[in-house]
TrEMBL record:
CDD domains: Rieske_RO_Alpha_N (cd03469). SUPFAM superfamilies: ISP domain. GO terms for molecular function: 2 iron, 2 sulfur cluster binding; metal ion binding; monooxygenase activity; oxidoreductase activity, acting on paired donors, with incorporation or reduction of molecular oxygen. It comes from the Bacteria. It comes from Nostoc azollae (strain 0708) (Anabaena azollae (strain 0708)). This is Rieske (2Fe-2S) iron-sulfur domain protein. PANTHER family: 3-KETOSTEROID-9-ALPHA-MONOOXYGENASE, OXYGENASE COMPONENT, IRON-SULFUR DOMAIN CONTAINING PROTEIN. PROSITE patterns: RIESKE. Residues 27-128 form the Rieske domain.
Length: 367
C-alpha cells in the first residue's frame, strides 16, 4: 500500500533532506567539554567552516571564526590571556565578543572585530549555534528537560551517508523486525515539539523478541516504551525501556565533506545522589552502551553502502515521510559558508549574513 497522506512529491528533489551542500540552522556539537581545558585554544572545522575555540579563566567556551581580521593568521596559533585571545602573528587581542581590545603598536585599538558564534555546554559537549541568535534551547530529552544529568560517551564514528539518512534508521519500522528481530508491530505517533524538533512515540503491548526485554516481560505487562526526539534532523534522542527503567541515548551527528556523517554517541541518565546513586547510574550508563552497541553493530554496514532513495513508500514508511516534510519546512544554510539559502521556483539563492554591529566596516571603506 502506497502512502501519500503527507503529499510528498518525490519527483522533485528535497531542498534540505539528504542534501550534501545544505544543513538546518541550529545547535551542533563541537567537541567534548573535557577536551578543552582552561587557557587552551584549538582549531575546529564544523559543517565546513573553520573556527577556533578557547576557554578563558571564567571557564566559558568561546568560538570565533578561525582567521584574524587583520591579515588572516589562524587564531588557534595564538594564546589565551584571561578571558581574551591574542593572535600569534601581530599580537592583536580580542575579547569574548570578538572586539579588538589591544593593538601593541597603537595607543588605542582600532574598530575591528572577529566573527563570534553563540556557544553553550550540555551533556558533556560544547555546542555552537550556526546563526546570529539562538532560536531554540539546546537539544534535550523531553522527560529530562529540567533535570540534572550524568552522561558518558560512546564511540565517535564516520559513515558514508548523510546524517538525515542515519536519523531515518530509528523510525524505519520495517528494519526493527527484519534486521533486529525486535518487534513485528511498530506504530509511531508523530508530534512536532517546535519548528526544529519532532517526536515519534511507540508504546506497544506486543510481546518483544529482543532478549533483554524478554527477561523482564514475564513480570511486566505494560507497554514497552520507545520514544524519539529529533533536533535539526541531525541530533536524535532515543528513550527505550519500561515504565520503571529508561535508557536514554543521544546520537549527535553533523554533516562533513562529501555528504558524509561524523557522529558521537552519548548515554544519559538522571543524576542520582549519594554513592549508591552514582553506582546505579554507572550501571545504567553501561547497560545503555551495551544496548546501543547491539543495534549499531547490525546497522553500521547499511550506513556505509546505502544510496538513499525512497521511491515507493508504503504505509509503514509514513514516519519517514513525516520526518522529511518536517525538515523541508526549516531554515537552510549553505555548508561551508553558513549563509542562508532560499529556494524559489527550483532555483537556489545564497544570501550572505551580516551582523548589524559590522556596519562600521562600510563606513570605514567609504572614508
Amino acid at each position: 500500500m502506497n502512502v501519500n497522506a503527507e503529499n510528498v512529491n518525490y519527483a522533485r528533489k528535497p531542498k534540505i533532506f539528504n542534501q550534501p551542500e545544505r544543513f538546518i540552522e541550529g545547535w551542533y556539537w563541537v567537541i567534548p567539554s573535557i577536551k578543552l581545558r582552561v587557557g587552551e585554544v584549538k582549531p575546529v572545522t564544523i559543517l565546513g567552516r573553520d573556527l577556533v575555540i578557547y576557554r578563558g579563566e571564567d571557564r566559558q567556551a568561546v568560538i570565533f571564526d578561525a582567521y584574524c581580521p587583520h591579515m588572516g593568521a589562524h587564531l588557534a596559533e595564538g594564546k589565551v590571556e584571561g578571558n581574551e585571545l591574542r593572535c600569534f602573528f601581530h599580537h592583536w587581542k580580542y575579547d569574548t565578543e570578538g572586539f579588538c581590545v589591544e593593538v601593541p603598536c597603537l595607543d588605542e585599538p582600532i574598530n575591528v572585530k572577529v566573527k563570534t558564534w553563540p556557544t553553550a555546554e550540555k551533556y558533556g559537549l560544547v555546542w555552537v549555534w550556526t546563526g546570529e541568535t539562538p532560536q531554540q534551547p539546546l537539544p534535550f530529552i523531553t522527560e529530562l528537560e529540567l533535570e540534572e544529568c550524568d552522561s558518558a560517551f560512546g564511540s565517535q564514528f564516520i559513515t558514508n551517508c548523510h546524517p538525515n539518512v542515519v536519523m531515518v534508521n530509528a523510525i524505519d519500522a520495517q528494519h526493527f523486525n527484519t534486521v533486529h528481530n525486535l518487534l513485528s508491530e511498530f506504530n509511531l505517533e508523530k508530534q512536532e515539539l517546535n519548528e526544529n524538533a519532532i517526536t515519534f512515540s511507540n508504546h506497544t503491548q506486543e510481546k518483544p523478541k529482543f532478549w533483554l526485554i524478554k527477561l523482564i516481560f514475564p513480570f511486566y505487562k505494560k507497554p514497552v516504551i520507545y520514544d524519539l526526539c529529533y533536533w535539526y534532523g541531525t541530533t536524535g534522542m532515543v528513550t527505550v525501556g519500561t515504565e520503571f527503567l529508561h535508557f536514554h541515548i543521544m546520537f549527535a551527528l553533523r554533516l562533513i565533506e562529501g555528504g558524509k556523517t561524523e557522529g558521537l554517541i552519548i548515554f544519559i541518565a538522571e543524576k542520582r545522589r549519594g554513592i549508591f546513586g552514582w553506582l546505579y547510574n554507572r550501571f545504567i550508563l553501561w547497560l545503555s552502551k551495551f544496548l546501543a552497541q547491539y543495534f549499531i553493530k547490525n546497522d553500521s554496514k547499511i550506513f556505509q553502502t546505502i544510496q538513499f532513495n525512497l521511491k515507493s513508500p508504503i504505509e509503514l514508511d509514513q514516519p519517514i515521510v513525516q520526518f522529511i516534510n518536517h525538515l523541508e519546512g526549516q531554515k537552510a544554510l549553505k555548508w561551508g559558508s553558513w549563509n542562508l539559502e532560499r529556494v524559489r521556483d527550483g532555483e537556489v539563492r545564497e544570501i550572505e549574513k551580516r551582523e548589524n554591529r559590522e556596519k562600521w566596516r562600510d563606513e570605514l571603506v567609504n572614508d
